[in-house]
């Protein structure tokens, strides 16, 4: 298997894990603190807008390459194994379909960036 096939396979695995976390956030046996982490990671992963815009060279993809996998690992460790197994089964059946997009999460990211930009500009003018 060549390098690009490995990358493609890894991306598909991450997509399935994101779906599983999405389902785990709604599962009644998932603890509240795990739901909080899962909801944050799922919202960020499904958001059409990134915290660090992708058009910025090199660091634009850093959040996708580092933050999302670290968040997935943290969330997986917080979710009970039987819940995660059930959610992975549901997610594997949906991987052929299009991933849902969270416009609310995108709006939250825009709000955060706007607030940080305004704060930075006020700081510069002060």
Question: What can you tell me about this protein's structure?
Answer:
The protein contains 5 helices and no strands. It has 126 residues and is mainly α. The protein has one domain. The radius of gyration is 17 Å and the shape is globular. The N and C termini lie far apart (57 Å).
Topology as a string of helices (H) and strands (E)? HHHHH
Number of helices: 5
* Count of β-strands: 0
Mean pLDDT: 81
Q: What summary fits the major beta sheet? A: none
Please tell me what the overall shape is: globular
Strand content: under 5%
Distance between the termini: 57 Å
> What number of structural domains do the residues give?
1
Write down the Rg.
Answer: 17 Å
Percent of residues in helices: over 70%
Unreliable stretches (pLDDT < 50, length at least 5) are none
Q: Structural class per helix/strand content?
A: mainly alpha
